């Protein structure tokens, strides 16, 4: 009997330790990688457009906020077995900031998809539409909508709370339905712009012929690469929305964890997977960090300085 109770205690604590460690490690690692990626954006500004830099920066900052409000509070709540962090008065603060930043990220997934599609069809039109002031205005509108969305959830029902005993986020029905509507609102315009861009690029490739043979080879290669890239973006966006919807409808701890971290990691994963400039710059930066850490620091004396006597 004692052995059975000990085994049950070890099993329960194993899952608590595992989930708590995952929240801390994934949160800390995600914050570090997002900060590194933000720091290298000015270095590759000549290879990616300015609207891409602004949109990606907004997404990464929102993801950092998401990770910041879970990577310490959730392990702390698991450790003390309480549904609040530090003080019962702050029981809804982490969830409020999390929902606010998640909603902002969802909106910018749609903005990023529209920008990619327009840029693939016509980079010049993309620069005209996505001006700096336009993107800053979109940021303000997105933040206002996210704030209203979050406050509406708080006013209608209890916002999500982390349950230390079940190791998941407890969502009320109204919040789940609201997020499902939001995901549908995000994915439909995104897929529509992707389909329009793919149709336009396919039409150009099939029916429009360039004047010279060398120009034809270059255009075929670039159009083929652009079509493949847009297709992958569309597939990834569909899979992302499907998995996020599934995580909202399920109370399994792993799916609840993926609800937080998949949204926070999504801009980073798509940028590294489908943009060679960002991927190369990040690899170069990480390699430089490890090389500088492994190389010894040698301080050589300055020969021009005057030598003092020992006495």
TrEMBL record:
It comes from the Eukaryota. The chain crosses the membrane at residues 20-41, 53-78, 90-113, 134-159, 179-199, 232-254, 260-278. This is Serpentine receptor class gamma. Keywords: Membrane, Transmembrane, Transmembrane helix. Coiled coil: none annotated.
């Amino acid at each position: 009997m004692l052995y059975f109770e000990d085994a049950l205690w070890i099993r329960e604590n194993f899952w608590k330790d595992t989930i708590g460690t995952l929240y801390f490690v994934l949160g800390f690692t995600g914050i570090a990688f997002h900060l590194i990626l933000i720091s290298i954006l000015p270095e590759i500004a000549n290879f990616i457009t300015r609207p891409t830099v602004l949109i990606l920066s907004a997404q990464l900052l929102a993801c950092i906020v998401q990770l910041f409000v879970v990577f310490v509070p959730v392990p702390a709540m698991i450790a003390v077995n309480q549904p609040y962090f530090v003080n019962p008065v702050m029981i809804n603060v982490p969830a409020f900031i999390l929902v606010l930043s998640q909603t902002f990220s969802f909106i910018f997934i749609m903005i990023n998809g529209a920008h990619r599609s327009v840029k693939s069809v016509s980079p010049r039109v993309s620069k005209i539409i996505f001006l700096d002031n336009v993107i800053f205005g979109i940021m303000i509108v997105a933040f206002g909508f996210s704030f209203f969305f979050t406050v509406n959830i708080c006013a209608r029902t209890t916002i999500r709370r982390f349950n230390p005993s079940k190791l998941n986020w407890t969502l009320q029905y109204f919040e789940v339905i609201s997020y499902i509507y939001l995901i549908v609102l995000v994915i439909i315009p995104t897929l529509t712009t992707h389909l329009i861009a793919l149709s336009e690029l396919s039409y150009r490739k099939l029916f429009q012929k360039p004047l010279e043979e060398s120009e034809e080879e270059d255009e075929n290669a670039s159009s083929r690469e652009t079509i493949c890239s847009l297709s992958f973006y569309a597939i990834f966006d569909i899979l992302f929305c499907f998995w996020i919807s599934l995580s909202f409808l399920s109370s399994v701890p792993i799916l609840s964890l993926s609800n937080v971290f998949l949204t926070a990691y999504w801009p980073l994963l798509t940028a590294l997977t489908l943009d060679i400039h960002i991927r190369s710059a990040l690899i170069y930066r990480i390699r430089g960090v490890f090389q500088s850490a492994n190389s010894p620091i040698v301080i050589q004396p300055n020969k021009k300085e005057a030598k003092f006597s020992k006495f």
